[in-house]
Design goal:
single chain, 458 residues, Four Helix Bundle (Hemerythrin (Met), subunit A), Rossmann fold, 4 domains, two-stranded antiparallel sheet
Length: 458
């Protein structure tokens, strides 16, 4: 990953927060008026650009809009970018023109001084410079051990004393060793201190006197390390340290983990102290020289090109798949990637489906014949509707015939039921006749018994 890409990635949160809010304000207006400037100024202040710097940007913006006669709010972003680039000005690199050169690192507790020294030594070593470190933070527990670990990682020498030793004496011995070993750079660590702690500030003044006396005429950098996540508090710290020490540059750490990168603009405008190094991560090579042009470009860069997700590229194997990945920048990327993992191609799937489709076709196919009525040149009348109407009529006739057959069946069933009823009635009449016959025979028997009885009685 290149330096610009690292800066761009590190400023991503600042870009999304600060630039996103500014764009939101601009897009909410259809014309340029004073209310727009007021909202822009408020948004910049909330983005840790600072009150004075925000007012300056808005004043310059008014002038440029008036000079160029701009009426479209969408053109304001380009003007803001120009103004911020002018404020940042030219870059100032570390002054390492003498041998040895001295770098004194100061700042409050917890801003990342020791880590910054380790990364700085690694960077200088890669540039071919011979570096030695002075472990002058003898106040904090385990500070020397921590710096020794970072020195081993960077591959540089270290000069250290016991805990509680005089920091100025450690710096003196480190300078003496650097001159004897012909080192190019001496990097001095110091204890964290606040600007209002008189004894600690006196200690810092003593270290400066030792450097000026022992390395007279040598280039000296006093770097103030600030934590970017603290926002405007970091600017206030810089103001106080500037009064107590001759600060030559700012190291802004943890810039990748905050949306408050706007303090870079505020520091440059309000303090006039250049930002010389920025921390963009935890790795040894994540401490980068500050480049104002790259900073502004990364902050305002509008990269809207659609790209394939990294997860999609990880799924691709082989040269054939890479060709699909190159085409995946189009809107059909998802479909292309899915086709890569299908076991059968689309043509094979169609071949397998076609036989089934042929089996399902009916033996006889009905085709609608269209006839043209050319009575007029302008109107073309299709007779398909008449054909469809005829088919509907035939269907209705068939339905009526089916209903007629159903009615005949019902009538036949009723006639059968009627015949059954007649048979039952005939059976009942026969049974009735049988009963009458039996009754007449019984009556005859009764009369015969009576006559017989009467005869016997006589």
């Amino acid at each position: 990953m290149g330096i610009f890409e690292k800066i761009k990635k590190g400023l991503l949160k600042t870009k999304e927060s600060m630039l996103g809010k500014i764009k939101g304000v601009i897009n909410s207006f259809t014309k340029i008026d004073e209310e727009l400037f007021e909202q822009l100024e408020e948004t910049m202040i909330m983005s840790d650009i600072g009150v004075e710097t925000s007012m300056l940007i808005c004043d310059e913006l008014r002038k440029k809009i008036k000079e160029k006669g701009i009426t479209d709010p969408s053109l304001i972003m380009e003007l803001i970018q120009e103004i911020i680039a002018d404020i940042m000005g030219d870059d100032q690199n570390l002054d390492l023109s003498t041998k040895p050169s001295v770098i004194l690192v100061i700042g409050v507790n917890g801003v990342g001084k020791t880590t910054t020294i380790g990364k700085l030594c690694y960077q200088l070593k890669n540039e071919g410079k011979k570096v030695i470190v002075a472990a002058a933070d003898t106040f904090r527990a385990a500070a020397v051990d921590q710096l020794e670990i970072w020195s081993q990682r960077a591959g540089v020498e270290i000069v250290k004393h016991g805990e509680g030793s005089d920091p100025a004496s450690v710096v003196y011995d480190a300078l003496d060793a650097a001159m004897a070993r012909k080192c190019d750079v001496v990097v001095c660590d110091t204890a964290g201190r606040l600007h209002n702690k008189k004894n600690l500030m006196d200690e810092l003044a003593k270290i400066n006197r030792v450097i000026d006396k022992k390395a007279e005429g040598c280039a000296k950098e006093v770097l103030l390390v600030l934590d970017a996540t603290t926002g405007q508090n970091a600017v206030n710290q810089a103001k106080m340290f500037k009064e107590a020490a001759n600060i030559t540059g700012i190291v802004l750490t943890k810039l990748d983990g905050t949306a408050k990168g706007g303090i870079v603009i505020s520091i440059k405008h309000e303090l006039g102290i250049p930002v010389k190094l920025i921390g963009l991560g935890e790795k040894l090579d994540d401490l980068q020289p500050f480049n104002s042009r790259d900073f502004v470009k990364a902050l305002f860069d509008d990269d809207t090109e659609d790209k394939v997700k990294e997860s999609d590229y990880e799924r691709l194997d082989g040269d054939e798949d890479i060709e699909y990945a190159d085409d995946a920048e189009n809107d059909e990327s998802d479909e292309i990637i899915e086709n890569i993992y299908n076991d059968d191609s689309e043509e094979e799937q169609i071949t397998e489906i076609q036989p089934e489709a042929e089996e399902e076709k009916p033996e006889t196919e009905e085709h609608t014949e269209f006839s043209w009525n050319t009575e007029t040149d302008d109107d073309i009348v299709w007779s398909a509707a008449e054909s469809e109407q005829t088919e509907i009529t035939d269907t209705e006739g068939q339905t009526e015939s089916e209903q007629s057959e159903t009615n005949d069946t019902e009538e036949q069933t009723e006639s059968e039921q009627s015949e059954t009823t007649d048979t039952e009635e005939q059976t009942e009449s026969e049974q009735s006749e049988t009963a009458d016959t039996e009754e007449s025979e019984n009556t005859k028997k009764k009369f015969s018994f009576k006559n017989l009885f009467r005869r016997k009685k006589k």
